[in-house]
Specification:
2 copies of one chain form a homodimer. Chain A is 51% helix and 11% strand. By secondary structure, chain A is mainly α. Chain A has a 3-stranded parallel sheet with strand order 4-3-5. In chain A, helix 6 links the parallel strand 3 and strand 4. At the A-B interface, helix 1, helix 4 and helix 8 of A face helix 1, helix 4 and helix 8 of B.
């Protein structure tokens, strides 16, 4: 997890209307680092220096497990979240961006998009999700986008004003 | 310019079929740094360690000025490049993604997309371009995406297989 992940994902979340972006990391040292960065820009000197960045990072929360996130969303909304995993190479059943866009427009339940860093989400997370979004495909047989790029593209495809 | 800019933009370029991605920076020290990073992953030990990254970074070239880039493209293609600037807040005449997509499909001339870091492209570059792409708009009145995110979204909108 890098400082730029937090910033880029925060800015995308704000631009495309994501309510909360969660960083999930089992390592306490990584969570502490993320919290420090977020605190600096939302409550520390960074908040006065750059209000735009403050707005972006206010909606980034840090948690230890996915289960915590799912529980928190259910408590906040009194409805369980539907999980939507993303993966670069998924070849199983998947949902298209158009179908997911329709669901987001009409369903009252909260939706939780899941992105993995490094080699992607763990298999059990993919298989346990309510949906898996179709992989992003360019014109060519190469798909190794960074998680920062994938988040930007997916949010734009689902909610951007094209 | 950061290490992650080079990697993310390299990967997006490869995924979406950009022939060459140019990093333009007037500072020699910055160009040297970029060249070192690219060399490591395309010809140095990084190339053996991660062939996927090698493929992505092979198409990233470093130049001192935009004029150099424009001249190089014209010499390579025996046709001048059409320049397409991007900007977060442009309120002048702009071209839509659909219109640009049609041009890219049918026009023989090479097209050069321009992205600025920090506060964006200089005004004279914007005003001197053949086209300015409509700003990326999310659902909300906030548009301060990083250049990494903007590149990913623009390339996907223009060439991605949605």
């Amino acid at each position: 997890m890098t400082n730029l992940d937090i910033h880029d994902i925060g800015r995308c979340s704000k631009t495309f209307g994501v309510r909360i972006g969660y960083i999930v990391n089992p390592l306490e040292s990584q969570r502490d680092l993320a919290q420090k960065i977020i605190h600096h820009w939302t409550q520390g000197t960074g908040a006065r220096y750059n209000p735009l960045r403050k707005q972006a990072l206010e909606r980034i929360h840090v948690r230890a497990t996915l289960q915590e996130v799912i529980q928190e969303i259910a408590e906040a909304h009194h409805l369980p979240a539907k999980t939507v995993a993303t993966d670069a190479t998924w070849r199983g059943s998947s949902v298209s961006y158009q179908e997911m866009n329709d669901l987001l427009c009409h369903d009252r339940q909260p939706y939780l998009l899941l992105f993995g860093t490094g080699w992607g989400l763990a298999r059990e997370v993919l298989e346990g999700s309510d949906f898996v979004l179709a992989p992003i495909e360019g014109s060519f047989n190469y798909n190794h986008l960074s998680v920062r790029s994938a988040v930007a593209i997916v949010l734009d495809r689902l909610t951007g004003n094209r």
